[in-house]
Specification:
Helix 2 crosses helix 3. The longest helix has 17 residues. Helices cover 58% and strands 11% of the residues. Strand 2 and strand 3 form a beta hairpin. With 130 residues, the protein is mainly α. It has one domain: Winged helix-like DNA-binding domain superfamily/Winged helix DNA-binding domain (Arc Repressor Mutant, subunit A), CATH 1.10.10. Strands 1-3-2 form a three-stranded antiparallel beta sheet.
């Protein structure tokens, strides 16, 4: 993924396509088309994959007569980039505000292991001066 172009800056349909490519690991135009809700035409999906390639989000490999598209960055890297963008955009750059908002969601139920993991991460962040 091109630095400075987080996953959230993609359009709705581009995000849907990237989600499919991440989920499948690699995908042809036909495979993406099959997975899309309310799919556009084959040529539209091919064009969007071409744009995603131009933007640096995917690259293709030739597989016989078809192109197979693969993400250029790992899903974890894309998630971190999108999360940084969201925290900056909606929470003024405050990770604590973003975390508090997530914990205050009505459907966020934390298990004992979730709480232990969060405590460990907070302790680690404090020791690293973050």
């Amino acid at each position: 993924m091109v630095k400075g172009q987080p996953h959230l800056e993609l359009g709705r349909r581009e995000r849907q396509i990237m989600d499919i490519v991440f989920r499948l690991g690699k995908a042809s135009v036909a495979e993406v088309l099959k997975e899309l809700p309310d799919p556009p035409s084959y040529s539209s999906v091919r064009g969007m994959l071409g744009l995603l390639e131009d933007k640096g989000y995917v690259h293709h490999q030739q597989d016989g007569l078809r192109y197979v598209y693969l993400p250029t960055a790992g899903q974890q890297q894309a998630q971190h980039s999108a999360l940084r963008h969201m925290v900056h955009t909606f929470f003024g750059g405050s990770a604590s505000e973003a975390a508090a908002s997530l914990l205050e969601l009505p459907d966020s139920k934390l298990s004992a292991s979730d709480v232990a993991r969060l405590k460990k991460l907070i302790k680690q962040a404090k020791s690293e001066g973050r």
